[in-house]
Design brief:
Elements: H1 16-28, H2 35-48, E1 52-56, H3 59-69, E2 77-81, H4 86-94, E3 98-102, E4 124-130, H5 139-149, E5 153-156, E6 164-167, E7 170-173, E8 181-185, E9 198-202, H6 205-214, H7 223-228, H8 248-279, E10 294-295, E11 301-304, H9 311-320, H10 348-356, E12 357-360, H11 368-381
This protein binds pyridoxal-5'-phosphate.
Pyridoxal-5'-phosphate binds near residues 84 and 185.
Length: about 375
């Protein structure tokens, strides 16, 4: 191989405008949760069509607060998937509750709604579904089961800013909550970034009021309201809360990112389509399946390698060529942190997808030459001659 090139797995699309926004905020003298967080919340609500949006420090804390607001408590069970980042399970455990894992669908890599009903027990308090890698999960199917049993649905939308779902015969952005709430991440591997950050969208004013209070030590009044008041305010703390604040520096950056969202998603979709065109002839390779009711933002693009191919060897061979690949996510039940409790159900599809899925570089500003280089390296690693 003569060409020398290095291709990162992912790269946030940020430039001097985000840097300027951070600079202006630092110079404004108000750097923690304040006016820019409030502006960002209004803008994210408008972008998703959610009645309320509460910004927090990251998606893990968003999930923690949302599960608590949904009433999840010590000893309860929450139905979710194992094939997800550890944060999904960790947030359940923070409340002393237990994840009950159901298997995923092979094509979408998301919760199989047909398996949810059998997982419901008298201890089930909520369903925590995940829009994994930005692919919308089958919310219609999940909500139907939840509705029959009066269970709240929380969407782990960490990866799904800009994804869309056709539900109730119309296209909706992920984040217009179909259940109780949706939680997003602004980690740099996500579609929008603030360095770190998260937000909870909900249409329920009471739910929003709870998470809003808990993110700031359950203080009875926000710093911003206290600062803007001409009267002396005596704040109170009536319950145990957390410091899960987003800073105004993060908010300033992610506000600028939100303006870029349509362009970022359009570019990601174009690169995802091009991967399919370029890799379609590799025998045994399985692409993610986008149902006709879903439009992914392709936050992560993963292909299932042919079963007889050693994924680690492929990753090493591509790494040697200068290309970063990743195992796209994990199986929580196979990690020591969450392997202690007996599974309620076998998870053969989750385990197979976990073992075969290979995350390929994809970011808006990659070039066709970058992608061609990745494709050629993957073909070589799979033993396909050019
Ligand atoms: C599905 C999922 N849920 C939750 C999280 C946690 O997000 P954060 O890093 O913002 O806490 C992630 C992050 O990778 C994720 O992929």
């Amino acid at each position: 191989m003569s060409e020398k090139r290095s291709v990162q797995f992912s790269k946030p699309l940020v430039d001097h405008e985000e840097a300027q926004a951070a600079y202006d905020t630092v110079m404004s003298g108000w750097v923690t949760q304040g006016p820019r967080v409030a502006d960002f919340e209004r803008e994210f609500s408008a972008a998703t069509g959610a009645a309320h949006a509460c910004a927090v420090s990251n998606c893990t804390t968003a999930l923690h607060l949302a599960l608590r607001a949904a009433g999840v408590d010590e000893g309860d069970e929450v139905i979710t998937v194992s094939y997800t980042f550890l944060a999904t399970s960790n947030a359940i455990r923070y409340l002393g509750a237990w994840p009950v894992y159901v298997d995923i669908e092979r094509g979408t890599r998301n919760m199989d709604p047909a398996l949810v009903e059998a997982a419901i027990t008298p201890r089930t308090k909520a369903i925590l579904c995940v829009h994994q890698f930005g692919m919308p999960c089958d919310l219609a199917g999940i909500l139907a089961v939840a509705g029959r049993h009066g269970l709240p649905v929380i969407e782990d939308a960490a990866c799904a800013a800009g994804s869309e779902i056709n539900i109730g015969s119309q296209w909706e952005p992920i984040g217009r909550p179909q259940g109780a709430a949706a939680c997003f991440s602004f980690h740099p591997r996500k579609v929008l970034t603030a360095g770190d950050g998260g937000i909870i969208t909900t249409n329920d004013a009471e739910f929003d009021a709870k998470v809003r209070r808990w993110r700031q030590h359950a203080m009875s009044v926000s710093d911003l309201a206290r600062n803007n008041s001409s009267q002396v305010i005596i704040e109170t703390f009536d319950e145990v809360g957390y410091n899960y604040r987003m800073t105004d520096i993060q908010a300033a950056v992610v506000r600028r990112q939100l303006v870029r969202l349509p362009g970022i998603v359009e570019a990601r979709r174009a690169w995802a389509r091009r991967y399919v065109e370029q890799l379609a002839d590799i025998p045994g390779l399985e692409f993610p399946v986008e149902p006709e009711w879903a439009r992914s933002n392709w936050q992560t693009y993963g292909v299932l390698l042919p079963p007889d191919i050693d994924r680690t060897a492929v990753m090493q061979s591509m790494q040697d060529d200068g290309i970063q690949t990743r195992r796209p996510t994990f199986c929580c039940h196979l990690e020591k942190a969450h392997s202690g409790r007996k599974l309620s159900f076998p998870l053969p599809v989750s385990e197979e997808v976990y073992n075969r899925n290979l995350g390929l570089p994809l970011f808006p500003q990659m070039s066709a030459e970058d992608q061609d280089f990745v494709v050629a390296a993957l073909r070589r690693a799979c033993g396909i001659a050019d």
